[in-house]
Design the sequence.
């Protein structure tokens, strides 16, 4: 097919785009996708067709200014929506020119549009570039990409109705990523939720609350009685913030799971019910203080990931206020109110 189109002079701006990506001024994550963009640019680029004949498009599309015989190529006007959708100068300043972080989250199939063409268009307009382009892989079913045309889609609303929002969110955060496509099955979702949410976090919280209600708890007890658990809990906010800065949701949720496992191991190791039977009151109170502290930290840090469960956990633990300094990623709930005090 031969036809006349309007072109964007990508060759004029390719050098500026390459410099922005290579220098890290535009951070493309993960590194493999950054290398893919740089390899494409170094191989040499051609100018890009940005219009189609209106007749071939059936009249659908945005007319090219001063040329009603042409309409704008859909992947050209779609990119401009990132800024044209910001209606009014106030929103444009807030979310684009005046924002320190401009992050695009995209699928790997549209990397070239967002990390080459879009950057070149912004360079040509002398507008700020995105600060980060985070590229994710695909979800698959039976090894095949999910798509409407293949009729293999999984309805997320039905999943949430059946298993709850927390279970779906947790599976997506824990298992998706790592630089490869992820195959979805209901069995994997259920197994992950049962093992880590119900039998892991839920078990730790229920044990802790039951023990406190049975034996009481002194608010002035030293949580460092379980040094390993307390240290893990105190380190958790920074570990999560570091993972989120790298868009590594699997690492963030793995950090949560590490503390959960540490807490359950501590219960099995210390056996507070036996400490009570031996009248080792100081040790028992210290163990319970450490468990309450760890569970409160978990309730705060889980809020962005499993909000319903985190809210229930905060209610169980009496941690309803936010005090003191907070981490940069999410507000932290601190140890504000005791669960119950010993008589």
Sequence:
């Amino acid at each position: 097919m031969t036809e006349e189109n309007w072109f964007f002079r990508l060759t004029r701006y390719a050098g500026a785009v390459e410099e922005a990506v290579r220098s890290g001024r535009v951070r493309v994550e993960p590194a493999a996708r950054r290398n893919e963009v740089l390899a494409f640019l170094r191989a040499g680029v051609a100018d890009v067709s940005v219009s189609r004949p209106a007749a071939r498009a059936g009249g659908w599309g945005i007319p090219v200014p001063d040329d009603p015989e042409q309409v704008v190529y859909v992947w050209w006007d779609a990119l401009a929506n990132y800024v044209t959708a910001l209606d009014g100068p106030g929103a444009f300043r807030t979310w684009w020119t005046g924002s320190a972080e401009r992050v695009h989250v995209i699928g790997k199939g549209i990397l070239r549009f967002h990390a080459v063409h879009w950057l070149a268009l912004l360079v040509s307009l002398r507008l700020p570039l995105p600060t980060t382009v985070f590229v994710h892989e695909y979800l698959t079913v039976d090894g095949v990409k999910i798509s409407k045309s293949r009729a293999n889609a999984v309805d997320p609303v039905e999943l949430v109705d059946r298993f709850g929002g927390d279970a779906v969110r947790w599976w997506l955060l824990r298992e998706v990523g790592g630089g490869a496509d992820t195959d979805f099955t209901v069995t994997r979702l259920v197994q992950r939720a049962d093992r880590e949410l119900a039998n892991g976090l839920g078990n730790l919280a229920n044990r802790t609350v039951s023990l406190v209600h049975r034996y009481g708890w002194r608010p002035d007890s030293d949580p460092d009685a379980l040094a390993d658990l307390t240290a893990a809990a105190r380190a958790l906010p920074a570990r999560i913030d570091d993972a989120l800065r790298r868009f590594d949701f699997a690492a963030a949720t793995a950090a949560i799971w590490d503390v959960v496992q540490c807490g359950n191991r501590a219960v099995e190791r210390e056996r507070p019910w036996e400490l009570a039977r031996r009248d080792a009151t100081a040790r028992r109170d210290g163990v319970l203080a450490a468990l309450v502290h760890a569970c409160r930290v978990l309730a705060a840090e889980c809020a962005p990931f499993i909000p319903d469960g985190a809210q229930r956990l905060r209610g169980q633990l009496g941690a309803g206020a936010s005090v003191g300094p907070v981490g940069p990623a999410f507000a932290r709930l601190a140890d504000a109110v005791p669960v119950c005090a010993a008589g």
Summary: The first helix runs from residue 10 to 23. Confidence is low (pLDDT under 50) at residues 320-343. The chain has two domains: 7-136, 156-317. The chain has 13 helices and eleven strands.
